[in-house]
Specification:
The complex is a heterodimer of chains A (148) and B (613).
Chain A lengths: L3 H25 L3 H25 L31 H25 L3 H28 L5
Helix pairs in contact in A: 1-2, 1-4, 3-4
Chain B lengths: L2 H10 L27 E3 L9 H5 L5 E5 L12 E6 L8 H5 L5 E3 L14 E3 L35 H4 L12 H8 L7 H5 L6 H10 L2 H9 L5 H7 L3 H5 L2 H4 L5 H11 L5 H5 L9 E5 L3 H12 L3 E5 L8 H4 L8 H13 L3 E3 L10 H7 L2 E4 L5 E2 L12 E3 H9 L9 E5 L3 H12 L3 E5 L11 H9 L3 E3 L2 E8 L6 E11 L8 E14 L1 E4 L3 E2 L7 H6 L20 E3 L10 H19 L1 H22 L1
Helix pairs in contact in B: 5-7, 5-12, 7-8, 7-12, 8-12, 9-12, 14-22, 18-19, 19-20, 22-23
The chains are: A mainly alpha (148), B alpha/beta (613).
Amino acid sequence: MNTVEEILDYAIEQEQQAADFYEDVAQRAETAGMKKILLDFSEEEKHHKKILQSVKNDEHKLTPEQEVLDLKISDYLVEVEVSENISYQDALIIAMKRERAAYELYTDMAAKIPSSHLREVLIGLAKEEAKHQLFFEAEYDERVLTDN
Amino acid sequence: MSLKDLLSPFFVWQRAFEKPYTTIRPTLDRPGAPAYRGFHINITDTCVGCGSCHEICQNQAIDMVAVDKYVGRDGDSGLRPRFDYGRCCWCGLCVDICTAASLRMSNEYAWISEDPDSFHFTAGIDEKPWQDNELGYRRAEGYHLYPPKRIEMELLPPEESVKSFDEVTLGYSEEQAKKEADRCVECGICVATCPAHMDVPDYIHSIRDGDYEKGLKLMYRTNPFPGTCGRICTRKCESVCPVGILGEPVAIRWLKRFIVDQVDKKDYKRILDEQIENSDFKVAIIGAGPGGLSAAYYLRQQGHAVTVFEEHESAGGMLRYGVPSYRLPDVELDKDIDHIISIGVDIQYNTKIGQDIQFEKLLEDYDAVFMSTGLSVPSSMRIHGEDHKRVLSGLQVLADVASGRDPGIGKKVAVIGGGNVAMDAARVSRRFGAEVTILYRRRISEMPADAEEIHESQEEGCKLVQQAIPVEILDADNPEQVYIRWGEARMVDDPKGGRPRPVLQEDRMHTETYDCIISAIGQGSNLDYLCKEMQDKLAIEWGRFTPVEYQHTTLDKVFVGGDFANRTADAISAIEDGHHAARGINRFLNPEVYLNAERLNAEQLNELTGEMT
């Protein structure tokens, strides 16, 4: 990936893949309640995709300089399996970990890329993913860790 | 008549052109004394509309009226005092009793108006020139018409309490209860906030009168667990008690307990004297916790045949298997439950729906079904090593103890969590002689546990470590022990106004070895007794129900209540859910009766409104 456009296309594709992933899990979920939650997650990813498309169209700017809070919840949670009777807690863990992995991917790419302009774009994308991670971590903090 | 007499009225007119001998207006250059009891001022933002001023006024010069600026909410009736200066004698009692110290008097005493109605005004709402007067009568600082401090409940000393499961709170004496009851201003603000809308002012009044039987009857109107709630209620009522604004709120919970303690269990039947005419309807209830049994009591009162299905060998749900007996002795819980059973409620113990009887079978056999199975599944921490055999759940430890089993906790215990289950598990562990450390992710002030529970756990020797985030559990050298790694947290404010969030500081990690770790971070529901299709039909989200009107679900016959159907997850809310569902089920079973009654009520209301206008 040598151009901003290529990087953004890749990121947009990743968001679409994430949306597809949640839709796929939703199809397999046993209860209507969980199906709805997973479809909501999928919609969230589509929303992320739209933001990146608007960045590509110069309608929106990435904010590489923005500090994003990392609650570090997902770092210490065990990996969970996707299953038909997935719980809300596990769905959130999967979502947090996916966002974290994306953040780390863009951060690593930024560290390796020589062009400072492209680095800025990758850091901006990493910050976007960090925001998404914070969204799911805050939800986990609020709904799962009720007595903690 | 002489000519002079005839002409004299005309001479009087001469006077019309002379300078008057009287003043047209009173002189206004003599201000009232600095502490003069003049016209009223009310700081309406501070006022909570408790109506104490209205109650105390001997001239009936104060009415509580609705005003546009305020609406009723928890802790504020939304009403404000309206003064009738045709009646007021400016005695200042209203100022002396004002629970919020919002009412005062200005030193203004002259008010000229040709409109007699204007002397009837709502202080602080109707604009008056004296509203901002600095001078005038104020209640002297520290002067109260009722003692600002509550009568302290006597407790077992902590060094004694940790030695047994004896009840920690010892109860009020009659003298103490009457003194405490005298602090109540009978405003009723608490009634609106109490989830069960208990008639608090009247049952407290019954203590003043020494009529405890009346008090008991009043409580049973909306709550068939008064003995239980008199001990472990989350007492939302006290959090809004206006007496608590300038002092400590009335000890409503302890007064409720006092009434129950005065009445012998064998007299309940005679006093409550439920007159039951049997109906032809049958209702099934799943779960004999506070929600299920509350519904059972009020449904049975309506004459319906009620069968409660309970998977355990005893009734009470979390009240028996979750709340330790030092807070709620079994004998006191049984006093409430036995009366519910005594009016003809049938409880099928050791019967698990979905296993012994299918849910669908209940739908076939009964006219309505009420589900109240609570939150019985401990939430998982999902951290590495959580499946270690020395990691126990708080709920399991409490259930073991309640059932007389040894929870096997060892002598050095870490409890993870900050809710009531965590505090109970910690205090129970102390009673088994363990050294206890509570690890909580946030600060003490953010703990969801009852403040009293937190305080008492510390008094009993539990060490509370706040801002501690567990990250990993590992094998210890001794297989009967476990090793935990936790990190310190820094707190970050939530920009959206939620609870501050703890952020792990990875450079501040700690490790410690314990005999066991008790996890108590939250609970979820177990809905395995409902097949997936049924769960879909019941529109369950995140393991919880969102009932519509009268606790009804999306299924015709099915009603829900209790912890898995409300946001508060406490006994009093479950009790109200049960009562509310009982009303809903009655409406469902007798729609015509209720619709007619509602129509009649509406007609009566219309008539009344017509008469008033």
